[in-house]
Model the fold of this input.
Amino acid sequence: MPARFPRTPPTVVPAAPRWHIPSRIPPLTCILQAPPRLAFTPCSTLSTAMAPAPSHTPIVISGPSGAGKSTILKRLFDEYPDRFGFSVSHTTRSPRAGEQHGREYHFVTKDDFQDLVDKKGFVEHAQFGGNCYGTSIKAIDDITAKGRICILDIEMEVANHPTFPRPRFLFLSPPSKEELEKRLRGRATDKEEAILKRLKQAEAEMDFSTSPEAPHDKIVVNDDLDKAYAEVKEFIVGKDA
Ligand SMILES: Nc1ncnc2c1ncn2[C@@H]1O[C@H](COP(=O)(O)OP(=O)(O)OP(=O)(O)O)[C@@H](O)[C@H]1O
Done:
């Protein structure tokens, strides 16, 4: 799994969760016009019609915490060890012991960070715990220049960037809220409060995933792991890989 960018929690608009599986996702023409609005219609969807041909275009993978992103990506990276890369984020926080500039993060001053923000050099950036974090266009381009596919676990604001070419968006969905809760508890990495918070946020993410503003080219339901992996793999590296 890539170094994870601290994600800004989406705004949760209270709504009764509807975990259904629509037959297709909204057309891509909606994507670049509207800002990502996180109002909510939970569901799990599958679509192949809108996905462009696999290439070196960066992939943004999203989905509720516990949906299985790390599990599936690990499998993919094990199968294709030289095919992917992760962008190195910028941060204004100080390096921790053992961290190297340019490896874990690009450690920059607040002024330098702001300068890059002003120049629209980030595809997304956010504040977290009093520090700024961002994914720069250059960091993504560095991966693509090496002939690798850059995998990003970032917010959807990248879809609205004025100059960055549109990445491909993959959403990994759990089969149900109950199953998601089971996985989060089974993973045993979070306290009760964190699990409840993740579940609430999951509802917002699920709703957003099928709203007209959602940019996803493909939504994979991670019920059976092998099947979900095969679908993710086909979307990312193509059918014949
Ligand atoms: N298809 C599946 N069936 C059953 N369990 C699964 C499946 N996929 C993943 N899991 C399990 O669900 C748990 C959550 O998976 P994982 O940690 O990969 O989720 P994640 O989406 O990466 O979460 P986070 O965003 O919090 O990192 C793990 O314990 C994993 O082994």
